[in-house]
Design goal:
two-stranded antiparallel sheet; mainly alpha; single chain; about 70 residues; about 55% helix
Length: about 70
């Protein structure tokens, strides 16, 4: 039990707390965002999240650019 507890404690120490707030209206400022949930993430999980967000942002930017009148 001691080794298991100690091992889990080491994992928890390496996690970061991240709160994701949401802006649901284009005119909202970050201060008006709805409070999101808090997640405990490892650095690897944060890296994966950032990569996913970057991919989604690139897709959104490409869609917006294609929709603009030329």
């Amino acid at each position: 039990d001691f080794c298991l507890s100690r091992g889990l404690g080491d994992v928890y120490k390496r996690q970061l707390l991240v709160r994701l707030d949401f802006i649901t209206q284009a005119a909202q400022s970050p201060d008006q965002a709805s409070r999101g949930r808090v997640y405990a993430l490892t650095s690897e999980q944060i890296q994966m999240l950032l990569e996913s967000l970057q991919t989604q942002l690139q897709t959104l930017n490409a869609s917006l650019a294609a929709a603009r009148p030329h």
